[in-house]
């Protein structure tokens, strides 16, 4: 797989570069203000290197899940504004993806200039399962540039036009972010330094089942929190009240617990409440005593202490998924405590993107205290599952 450094060594001054970036940031629903610009900031090393080398950069990205047509609530306008602030230069936004305005603005770019295309998912062909439909959009995107760079690790598990098909039409390399993600994930999958501890949270066991199956033979401990822990607790025979439960996964969890023995570590206590609310009354109870009418919405202090003990001696840690509903103040302590324990690891600590990365920033924790904060989310999990990711496979071609 060729890298950005290979391309820079060849020289890019005056050349048009199509850069697929991951700028899928959360927006406030009312104001459309960006609430977490982490992914934009993660794109800067590649963008700045290209700008400094005099490339004319055309950036393709998506935001949210529009239904294959222009939708103002999913416009990349706020992203263009923030990207310009971070780069210290104007970043115009094309009014289309690969149409007349995109072509006109791309052709008039100056050396070192950056143009952001409108949300690629405004074109239904971007996510089409029909090769010809995707190919037609890829042809138009490829016509905007001389070379293609994929720096959107969070999208490499998608066989989309701007991720997969364009790379078949242009000389292509991996950007700095993709290269860094690959390096870190390879370290997690190829002879990680031990003890190797994985922390998984989030809402559903079914979302993480494949990665649990893939990682269990490789880890020394798998710590389970978040909403998914209640299906495991039910598999142990505990009542879970009104907590999130995937009844169809109880037998699977029971099998995993039997196969893994002491390698799977479950919560000892949970924070319960009668309702999902920021001002509700909470109680901390042992996992054996969750009241019938209560919801478990965070792991408790004994669990944080126990998980912290498992993490204290680890040399490699991968954390994906919050321990509770960290967006609400009464249910932040579990995620905060585990996040601080991960940050204190003397070795490689990897935050697996998505809600985990958002929690680090929302809780005001020092991002620099982690070895790597992934932008990958689902892509990271699929890589750890051992799946072939289309966006990486085509770069290696």
Automatic annotation (TrEMBL):
Domain of life: Bacteria
Pathway(s) served: Carbohydrate degradation; glycolysis; pyruvate from D-glyceraldehyde 3-phosphate: step 2/5
Subcellular location: Cytoplasm
Keyword Transferase: yes
Subunit structure: Monomer.
Cited SUPFAM superfamilies: Phosphoglycerate kinase (SSF53748)
Entries under Pfam families matching the protein: PGK (PF00162)
Binding positions ((2R)-3-phosphoglycerate): 39, 121, 158
Stated family: Belongs to the phosphoglycerate kinase family.
Residues that bind ATP: 208, 296, 327, 353-356
Transmembrane annotation, as ranges: none
Residues that bind substrate: 22-24, 39, 62-65, 121, 158
InterPro entries documented for this protein: Phosphoglycerate_kinase, Phosphoglycerate_kinase_CS, Phosphoglycerate_kinase_N, Phosphoglycerate_kinase_sf
Species this chain originates from: Geodermatophilus amargosae
Annotated keywords: ATP-binding, Cytoplasm, Glycolysis, Kinase, Nucleotide-binding, Transferase
GO cellular component, one term: cytosol
Catalytic activity: (2R)-3-phosphoglycerate + ATP = (2R)-3-phospho-glyceroyl phosphate + ADP
Enzyme Commission number: 2.7.2.3
This protein's name: Phosphoglycerate kinase
PANTHER family associated with the record: PHOSPHOGLYCERATE KINASE, PHOSPHOGLYCERATE KINASE 1, CHLOROPLASTIC-RELATED
